[in-house]
Predict the 3D structure of the following.
Amino acid sequence: MMTGSGLARSGRASTSLRPLLPASLLYVLFFAVPMLCLFVLSFWRAKGFELIPDFTLDNYEKAVVSKLYRTLLIRTVVVGFVTAAIVVPIAFSLSYAMRFVFERRGQLILQLVLLSLFSGYLVRIYAWRTILGKQGLLNSTLQWLGLINEPLEFLIYSNIAVVITLSGLLLPLAVLPIYSALLNVSRDQMEAARDLGAGRVHLIRTILLPLAMPGVRTAFAFAFLLAAGDFVTPSLVGGTQSLLIGNIIADQFRGIGSNWPLGAALAFVTIAIVLAIYLAVVQILVRVTR
Amino acid sequence: MIAKLRQHWIAALFVLAVLTYLYAPIVVIVLFSFTTSPRLSMPIEGLTLSWYRSALDNPLIISALTNSLVLALISAVAAGAMGAAFSFGLMRLKRPHVREALIGASLLPAIVPLLVIGIALAVFFRMLGMPQGLVNTAIGHLIVCLPFVVLTMNARLETFDFSMLEAARDLGASPVRTFLDITFPLIRPSVVGAALLAAALSLDEFVITWFNIGNQQSVPVLVWGMMRRGVDPSINAIATLLLTLLVGLVICSNLLGRKKRS
């Protein structure tokens, strides 16, 4: 009797694990293993179009020493950081309004925000080029209205254009985690704090922000990491002065003078630096809101 | 009361401003797909459908569209099925730590930049000696779609009553019978919804596709090429068609998720 039920239980356990298998296998085989391959490749050498197995740190040395790559890395971190610094406060304010001002109707606004995410990634970047271009919608409208005589040159092919476009792309992604975090804060908690005499700023700083911190952290991660990893936006709306490290990495894989091992090393150096900065910022955020 | 009204008013303005920021590019593309002037600027001179005609006359677009639809179908069916099964398995795990760890791991491809996933796959297939093409791309799409399928399925399975399955088993139903007669009919709207989301993600995927598709084209890869070559207003027409398809898929996906709850 005992062994019978034990058998049944173990049988049940094995059937409940089986659904996990196909996806897990796919993840390991086509996500984890390829990442490992990329890492191994970063120690190889490239000779013409051939990849030569090796164990050399030359690629990493080139990635760190080269002035060009350093300039691009710094610009990438700054652009990613500025994008996150724009996106996260807007996402927080929007989530706050959806949760505590509009309440029920907030869900509808959330649907609209998320729907914009699915209007085409390339399409939106291209549209920003149309809007910000020298003879684009913004400039031609301002001129048509007589507000400016000459088109504003800084609107396109600049770091500003890259940040405006990336912020628009990543904002919906940042709203989702912050809004979910705010769903866990009840109106009663807010009312209670207000009844005890807490002002709005105090309320947000000492109650709302710490409670929403996991969401804010995720939102920052999305905005910063994805902005730092994008190369499509800089190549369409950024000029040669606004290229990011992603453009150089992409060029190593699809460009003319491509060098896969160097590209791989550049990718890992970028990931390491961006992750280190992300973790440092999160530490600071946690300390500030405590 | 007055304070509340004023707060409402400011918040409404703010929400409107943000929505304008998010939707301005979309409105611009749709608007300019109908204008006569090839120059994308104000004021608008006249309206025409000719960009749609020239877009649909382009044989490259038809082949790119076919490839995109094939990739979307594979993503919908395979990522939908695998992601749903994965999420279903997760819900039945008894240990919360293991479950949390697996959810975290399954979401990783959504956080790693697509550029890195794309080049990692290209390297992997090169090492295997597999030439670039649709198969490699389809696998890449599955990796990108899975986290989002798992996320939506997790949210939708939260209300699923697992005791029903125990009851069916106690009454003598085999696992296959239980799945076909009880589980699947109950989760079908959620699975179809998640699959439509996967199709939308796949249709929109550019970065991984670009590194793995080789000489073939998908709609985003074709659009990328056209953008780089310069101003051809039929891009706006193609973009609008793609946009309509994507938004339609996502709305259907959301409606299917909601039907189950009511």
Notes: DSSP finds 13 helices and two strands in chain A. Residues 1-13 of chain A have pLDDT under 50 and may be disordered. The first helix of chain A runs from residue 2 to 17. Strands of chain A lie at 45-47, 50-52.
